[in-house]
Amino acid sequence: MAKRVxxxxxxxxxxxxxxxxxxxxxxxxxxxxxxxQNMADAFxxxxxxxxxxxxxxxxxxxxxxxSLLMEQLDSAILGGRIVHASIKLRDTEISSxxxxxxxxxxxxxxxxxxxxxxNIYYVSLPIVSSDSMAILxxxxxxxxxxxxxxxxxxxxxxxxIAYLFITLIAAVFLSATVIRPLRWLxxxxxxxxxxxYDKKLQTDSNIVEIHDLTxxxxxxxxxxxxxxxxxxxxxxxxxxxxLAGGVAHEFNNVxxxxxxxxxxxxxxxxxxxxxxxxxxxxLELANRAKGLSKQILMFGRLDDDAExxxxxxxxxxxxxxxxxRALLPANVDLRIDIDPDAGHVRCDPAQIQQLVVNLCNNxxxxxxxxxxxxxxxxxxxxxxxxxxAGHPHxxxxxxxxxxxxxxxxxxxxxxxxxxxxxxxxTQEVGEGTGLGLSVVHGIVRRHDGEILLNSKLGEGTRxxxxxxxxxxxxxxxxxxx
Length: 481
Known about the structure:
By secondary structure, this protein is an alpha+beta fold. Helix content is 54%, strand content 17%.
């Protein structure tokens, strides 16, 4: 069975109707009961008060003419709400001349307003004088009060219907207020899903929950855009690495016999042959080409002959720093901050040293005149899931983190985008192969690490390398909890 889909506005209206269908009858009954009780109490109090006035005005004389009492009872009926007036004096029942015998037979004393459903409220009031005692019977017309009560009930019904109508209008308005920014978010989300990743998710809603939802969705969109860009960049580098590695592998197949035949030719030449120097030059250039090919293979991670072993990373980096000091000019400020116990990593120490040297060499080439320096630091670091978010090759766990920084000229966004591509360089033609950072990238990937770059024009550059820590036994320490 297909799932029934309803809109938020219709659900809100239906919920409001369901709530009011339960509450409004209860509310009507409660208000009607309270109003009826108040009106009944007022009627009874007024009737009893008027009964006392009539009783006090009567002149009781058992020996006097009954016509006088009858006239007084007639006056009580003619005075307003009283419809029954009689008095029992000794054994004699005297009633108003305005009443019939049938009216007298209707008397049935009430204890509450509305008793007996006869629309008359009967009251019995004893009258005591010095020489006699009588009982006054009065009946008060309830119909006017009953009519007023029904009018009040109608007014309550009208008010409740108006309230329901206003409530439904408010519910529709409220649903529109809530739905409008949600629909905008829906359209914007579809726009992003269609490929327009720069479409920001934002609304002008003052509702806290919608505002927070918008911020969360925008943060998610921004993170997804970042992750998508990094994934595309990583895929492009992987494709370039595969292509370059394949070309370098085939190039090696050509170089190997060239080197072999050149060496054999040199061995077969007699001493002092004039062509020996030419062959030695060929051999030198071929070896240089082999070195370039090896770097390309390392970028493509096809040169995996070296075995990875578990070693403490601190001495590996310290040895690389020693080489760097020898290579850099004496006037270059090299600032070192290495944790003496940065942990163990599974690595090829030679490749890690090559990584450090390449990064420092790249930093040196970026330095400008003035207060310039290069920084090399090594530390332990634990990465949580929030910090790892947005970095495809970085997971939560424990790492040895290598930072190489410089205060050089920095890079623009376009350069940062292409910095790891093989043969891409910002140097003059003939001053670099463009393979240094490509090799660094390949080494990091081979060691299951992550490389993060932060650089801006005029603000220098920082390369941060994350290498997973392992314990001495070779277990992945960064995956342990």
